Amino acid sequence: MPRVLRKPSRHLPFGDRRETPYYGRDILSVSQFRRADLATIFSVAHEMREMVERVGSFDLLKGKILANLFYEPSTRTMASFTAAMERLGGSVIPISEVHYSSVAKGESLPDTVRTLECYADVIVLRHPQIGAAAEAARYARKPIINAGDGVGEHPTQALLDLFTIVEEMGGVDGLTVTLIGDLRYGRTVHSLARLLAMHDVSMRFVSPPLLRLPDALRDELRAAGAKFQEHEKLDEVLGLSDVLYVTRVQKERFEDPAAYEAVKDSYVIDSELMRGARNDCIVMHPLPRVGEIAMEFDADPRAAYFRQMEYGMFVRMALLALVLGKA
Ligand code: ASP
Ligand code: CP
User: Fold this and answer.
1) Which of 32, 41, 201, 277 has its CA 20 to 30 A from that of 192?
2) Would the pTM count as exceeding 0.85?
3) How many Å apart are CA 143 and CA 166, to the nearest integer?
């Protein structure tokens, strides 16, 4: 009989396998997590931060290999997964230019992941189609980590966003979190809103009418009992927000360039505008920014977006250690 390697059942929610709840599991959507999982991930991320600050890198994942498979552009996600793996002593197969891989010859996603898992222990996948990571996970024996599936989700970004809020604000419950910009196509918003809905948070969604939350997500948040309101004007909520989560209008998702032009500059955060915000709030952005936050604001201590990127590496170190069974 040929030897068949299998993942632990990946259809159960994360916390359901008490013996090894994270080992070998895919990370496809934030919906697979419960609050207890978030606490575990953040406590490991916190330890990773301390270790990096103390020793820089260490050998927890020595000999393990990660494949970065990116069908869409990325700077942060790809670089931080690479840095995370290398700081843990592992190594990385980088496939960021899929047109130089056999994808250009017409190789399918299932075959591509089944190829890479012959060489790697975990695959990080970014793809333009919603559901692509779930499809890859149906074929792969090794864990698939969703690094963005079209307008679907970006779960590891949302985890690092929430970790940023915890580290900067001391917790999540009781806060007013305002999400601004492209709520329709922004996958980071789709994932973060779901995580925030697990907490006692007041969410304010600010967007032009064209870029409001997808109906299905609005219904899901309502069904989860989340507290939220939708607005078109930022000044209605600026002064009451603890966290301002600013996003880029996702140009690549628009079919009509004129529609993009009409909404692209709907909100711009600058020092003048931020005089109306709380002194103890933070401004976050998944980045890249293309004009939604003026560079002059970067020196303001409330500008948390560069710190947010750094937290991202610690969270990704924690996730890699957990799915590879070393945390
Ligand atoms: N980098 C994030 C993403 O890939 C946000 C963005 O591109 O605007 O979803
Ligand atoms: N935040 C984020 O996903 O950035 P990249 O698109 O550069 O990876």
Assistant:
1) 277
2) yes
3) 27
